[in-house]
Amino acid sequence: MLTIRNITLATVAPLVLAAAGATHPHGLSRATATDWTQLHIMLLPIFPLLTLGLLVPLWHRPRPDLAGFATAVAWASAFTYAAFYTGLDAVAGIAAGTAVEHAARTAAIGPIKYPLYHTGELLGQVGAYALLVAVVATAIALFPKHGARVIPGTVVLLVAGWSFTDSHIFWPRGVWTMLGFALGFALLATGTRRSQSAPPRV
């Protein structure tokens, strides 16, 4: 039951983001501005929860060793991701959508949205790369206790994390990226749980 709970906690956010990505407008225009804004408002609390897939297996007090230091790095990097990627959602999503929606009919929307895109993209890049650092730090923290069982999930998460740096959740690659996160988090949760439930060596 504990494994099922952990997998559920770890995968719910990427699965929700994958579903949202399938309906995400492919571009911001006057016709899509309302949907663009409302979708990003709904996703505002979801993007930070992507880190649950890393925080669940790290749910313990760090020890004064390499694994403990890596745990602290993973936590700090996960926080950095959550803060900066929320900035992308707020600026390039909510702010840009609102600005285009309320722009004068005669106004060109390019000069309105592109500066917001640029700022949001910079914030999102910091967040996405911080998430990659968190994945690596999590693997380092978990490896001494769980060994090679953390490798499959880590590999999948690194591939998904690299794709995330420029795919957001846009269909099709962004959706597949979120599904990759869900798979990687599930593998990580399963791998760490197996080693916890293994009989002690004699």
Mean pLDDT: 92
What does the main sheet amount to?
none
Strand content: under 5%
Low-confidence stretches: 195-202
Amino-to-carboxy terminus distance: 27 Å
Oligomer: single chain
Shape summary: elongated
Please tell me about this protein's structure.
The chain has helices at 2-23, 33-43, 52-55, 66-101, 110-146, 151-167, 173-197. It starts with a helix and ends in a 5-residue tail after the last helix. Helix 1 runs antiparallel to helix 7, helix 4 (66-101) runs antiparallel to helix 5 (110-146) and helix 6 packs antiparallel against helix 7 (173-197). With 202 residues, it is mainly α. It has seven helices and no strands.
Spell out the key features of this protein.
single chain; mainly alpha; 202 residues; disordered C terminus
Task: Give a quick rundown of the structure.
The chain is mainly α and 202 residues long. The chain has helices spanning 2-23, 33-43, 52-55, 66-101, 110-146, 151-167, 173-197.
Protein topology:
Blueprint: H1 2-23, H2 33-43, H3 52-55, H4 66-101, H5 110-146, H6 151-167, H7 173-197
Helix pairs in contact: 1-7, 2-4, 4-5, 5-6, 6-7
